[in-house]
User: Fold these one by one.
Assistant:
Number 1:
Amino acid sequence: MAKNKRHVDKEQKAEEIELAAMHLFIDVGFDASSMSMIAKSADVAPNTLYWYFKDKDDLLIAVLNRLLNAGMAQYPSMMSKPLAEQVIWLLGQLKETKGLISTVHARVKYSPDIAVWHDKFHNMIEKILTVQLTLNGVAKEKIPFVVKALTYLAEGLLSHENTQEDERGMIDWILRAT
């Protein structure tokens, strides 16, 4: 006979599931992480996942938001540093989850929810860069182009292996051109 469900704090259980999914998504990849694997790792029945998340993409968004919030909590300590160091720091944050960035780009065309998350993420990064470029005296008319150049550079650097020296050189080159 089935046992009665014990009282479970919904936020705590969702957090446990997110953490299990995050570790699997980072360690073995999104595509290789089945909902059954996530459930097993979170010590819940597979159908329990759907009480908390509508689907795997919804769970991915929760994981992405968790990682983004953790990184953004550290950002205020970076704001007083030179812009190149801020960009390098941001790249370092993104590199830790490089596989998830590729997953987001691959999923954008199949998942409207992922596409919305991706657009919001880009808007947030563009706003941060715009503010920092403004504070660093970059001419207003140049800012949109510099933001795009830094965004494209970051995506390229995340897609290909480079030395830290090369990364720094490319970032410095773009910023000097402003």
Note: Residues 150 and 171 are 7 Å apart (CA to CA).
Number 2:
Amino acid sequence: MARERLTMQRWESLTHWPLIIASLLWLLAYSWKVIADSQGTEEIVLWTVIIATYAVFAVDYVVRLSLARPRGPWFRGHLLDLAIVVIPMLRALRLLRVLTVVTFGKQSAGTVLRSRIAIYGAGASLLVIYLCALAVLDAERRSPDANIVTFGDAMWWAFVTVATVGYGDYYPVTALGRIWAVGLMAGGIAIVGTVTATVSSYVIEKAAHGRDDDEAATRGQVRGLMQQVAELKQLIADGEKKP
């Protein structure tokens, strides 16, 4: 029996859940390492898991790049996948792929799209806040001038930062911590914009519901109606010709 040829679709089907599991393992290992401030053997084990997940994502990217045809457009269109390999924090975003299996029943395409955007937005918001809190805590806790020294402090700082409140009671003092803060602020603006756009779209649809008679017909609708009228006239003419 001939061996089935490996294609991009087959590879992605085979690696979908393994990559999600690898993302979860990375998130658990990194969370444990930072929150527990692991040392010694425990830290070595956690670093082993983190490096192993890095290898899994690197192999996945190399295989998909080798299977891509043509490779240039695929590379330019999948820069996020490269960033996931290079930037460890982005690996947890793979967990959002689980949301692709969510079904919404018999709904319009627009409603399904908004539902998915809302779910992705909520999931991305929580992940970004949690990961940035971990990253800032990891960068700050050993600085003598740090005021973010516990996981609770870090989560509070992340929430007030992403909400653009910025009380100023907690703030990063290290260069790396401030880099993560800039990333969180940029992510917070993007998340707020996405949520606002989704809510606005929902409100507009609800306001227009039941007012279809007030809307102007599109050219496509007019052409379709004219074609149906012409077909109906032809049927009537053919019927009249028959004895």
Note: The chain has two domains: 7-94, 102-209.
Number 3:
Amino acid sequence: MRSHLLNDTTAERYRGSVTEGIERVAAGLATTDRPFTEVTADGLAPRVEAVDLDAPLHDTIAALDELDELYLRDAVHSHHPRHLAHPNSPVVIPALLGEAVLSAVGSSLDTWDRSTGATLIERRIVDWTTERLGLGPAADGTFTGDSAQADLQALLLAREEREEAGEPDPARLRVFTSAAGDRGVRRTARLLGLGADAVVTVPVDRHKRMHTVALARELARCRREGLVPMAVVATAGTADFGSIDPLPEIAELCAQYETWLHVDASYGCGLLASTTRRHLLDGIEHADSVTVDFHKSFFQPVSSSAVLVRDRRVRDRGVRDHGVRASVPGQADESPQPTRRFDALKLWMTLRVMGADAIGSLFDEACRLASAGWKMIAADPRFDVVVEPRLATLVFRYIPSAVTSPADIDRANLYARKALFAAGDAVVAGVRAGNRQYLKFTLLNPETTTADIAAVLDLIAGHAEQYLGDSLVRAS
């Protein structure tokens, strides 16, 4: 029905519908006391499956009432102080305003006649980011759907560079990444048509950072065996540990072996706005390409990602048909994804309303909280903590006072995580470290307190002890 199309005659309907939706979300925020409601997939799935999508409700209020039952009421509240699981920050209001505007206006970042100022704003945000990275005057970039797309585009450029250098055989190309790095590197290599052995995993040091001596050894071995080191993927903020690889040393090795350096700063990009921790990214200015996820540490809604390159000419050779900028601004040839949302608007609104220092201050607060949490856990005999945090991630596990098998400790920690979620009291993540089961806090919410951390630790200990006690009963 035409009355539902957004145009000059339906502006009031649009205003009323969106306002009603916002009121529902705001009401939920005001009454949220837990990060989750205990709903299960088995309990929710039949209700969703029962909806007849061929029988519309013909009423916005009724549709929102139904949405309350199927989604809003049981949504995981990532803004809650005890949502501690994933490296996705809570969002700031100016970014939500940008999201509302870009969704309604519907600009597509491919041609000037579909985007106009949107193209110029995205380019300005890209320039701002490359300046913060220190990539130099020839740098450029583009927004992407997520960090996986950004990494794919970066490694595509690295492969194109090897082909330009006269290496046409993809079976000889090798990509190096750390054992604590993004597991998506292997998927990316497969998508690029590289061989099954293309990804070389480099050991990490005790801080979960890529071991540069081991990297040098692997690069030398690669050359001796007649293989071609295509790229090194360093990480500035691993998903599991928040560790930052030694970027200056890695950059020197890449220069020595004429190898593309890609830095996945999806998580650590928040340091670009930090006034106290920016030095942790020293060396990133030597990268050939960088991935950033603003929705991880710039407090933006999903998605808000970008890939940045040191030399736009390299990017143009890889993705442009003609390798030159058009006289009329457009983005169709800037990436393999010509039709894209105007996601840069969210960060633009955030910077214009709040400023970079305010974002950096929020991220610094999260990092300080993680440091305080680390001291708390390290001093608690009930827990073993893996590494001191560089960003906002803590990896730890419950250790019972009585002698218990490692396998039972693994199961107790896994049980505690699931029990927390099932009860709706907190959301924490799980991770493997040294082939053992650990738990993970990602403390990106400045509203989380040390009291919240202490309370969740007590809950974890209680659930783990309950599991171990029940195990003894079952064994007897």
Note: The first strand starts at residue 140 and ends at 144.
